[in-house]
Write a structure and sequence with these properties.
Helix content is about 50%, strand content about 15%. With about 325 residues, the protein is an alpha/beta fold. It folds into two domains: about 5-230, Spore Coat Polysaccharide Biosynthesis Protein SpsA, Chain A, CATH 3.90.550; about 230-300. It has a seven-stranded mixed β-sheet, sandwiched between helices.
Length: about 325
């Protein structure tokens, strides 16, 4: 008797969550392949207990509400909730994470769950919704295009996935405790090179209310998405800075050679160019050292705490949403 967990962050969006719940219940009832028999919803209250409308959600028999201590943002709230649930989720349970506002469409749920049903032994396999269509304003689309180009330049990849994902419970007990998830959920899923299946899904419209993702939060969200790719960014930057350093040294050597060993006249601007090359070279060398240290620290943090069982070693993983302790067998 395994469980299908539906995990959603909720930020002053209780009405949308209740609509989402009803539609997901209908979609699960229409599935034609075998799924876990028990359906359980988890609403992660990202307001820190400030939304009085969630009282109606708490009264629903198939819903657990997890409160975060303060506003974490939708991606970190998902990670917080999954780590809280780790002690209750069995390895063979299925977990689906998605936004509660309706932009992750319940009608796509069957297509995300089908790869899990067809690969019963893929404990670490994840299924991700790949965005094929967005319904935002022209300004947002322009900003998103700039971000996509910058992300591709820095990391060599493009993130076209969000919070809509499906995987088995075993992944929540180990992989979700990786420190990369502390800042970004969707990026960390891709940066760890887990076996992934991508399902094309168009982004839907909100069920109710308005988005509270402001310009500042959007920028912070974008910066956090870069964090799990620190190693790739550092590697690309090191190559770039090494090239600048090498070019500066070669240019300086050419100017010195012409000055000492030929009768050619060196124009006055050559000295300024030489000085500029040295400055750029030393700046590149400094950045090289800084990024090397950052790369080393990033690699070290990825191993922090992985020598122990995260579910046994963490209090938050043993606790249930109601606060009652639960030890793992």
């Amino acid at each position: 008797m395994h469980t299908l967990w539906i995990v959603c962050p909720v930020y002053f969006d209780a009405e949308s969550f209740q609509i989402l719940r009803e539609r997901i219940r209908g979609e699960v009832a229409r599935l034609t392949f075998d799924t876990p028999r028990t359906l359980r919803f988890v609403a992660i209250d990202d307001t820190g207990g400030q939304d009085p409308e969630l009282a109606a959600v708490r009264a629903l028999p198939d819903v657990d509400v997890i409160e975060v201590p303060f506003n974490l943002g939708h991606q970190r709230a998902i990670v917080f909730g999954l780590r809280k649930l780790a002690g209750r989720i069995d390895d063979d349970d299925w977990v689906v994470t998605l936004d509660s506002d309706g932009e992750d469409q319940p009608s796509d749920l069957g297509r995300l769950l089908e790869p899990l049903a067809s690969s019963p032994h893929g404990a670490n396999r994840i299924v991700l919704a790949r965005r094929t269509e967005r319904r935002e304003s022209i300004t947002f689309r322009a900003m998103y295009l700039v971000f996509t180009l910058m992300f591709r330049l820095l990391t060599g990849t493009v993130i076209r996935t969000g919070n809509y994902a499906a995987f088995r419970g075993a992944l929540t007990k180990q992989v979700l405790f990786h420190p990369f998830f502390d800042l970004s959920y969707s990026s960390a899923l891709l940066s760890l090179d887990l076996p992934a299946t991508f399902v094309p899904c168009a982004r839907g419209r909100r069920f109710a209310g308005q988005s509270r993702m402001g310009f500042t939060k959007l920028i912070m969200h974008g910066l956090r998405m870069l964090t799990p790719f620190t190693d790739r960014i550092a590697t690309r930057a090191l190559i770039c800075f090494s090239g600048v350093l090498a070019a500066g040294i070669v240019g300086a050597a050419i100017v010195v050679f012409v000055r000492l060993f030929t009768a050619l006249a060196i124009p006055g601007w050559a000295s300024y160019i030489l000085l500029g090359m040295f400055m750029i070279s030393f700046a590149a060398l400094g950045n090289f050292v800084i990024l090397f240290v950052l790369f080393a620290q990033s690699g070290g943090s990825a191993l922090r705490g992985l020598y122990a069982d995260p579910v046994i070693g963490r209090t938050d993983a043993r606790e249930s949403p109601t606060g009652a302790g639960r030890s793992r067998p």
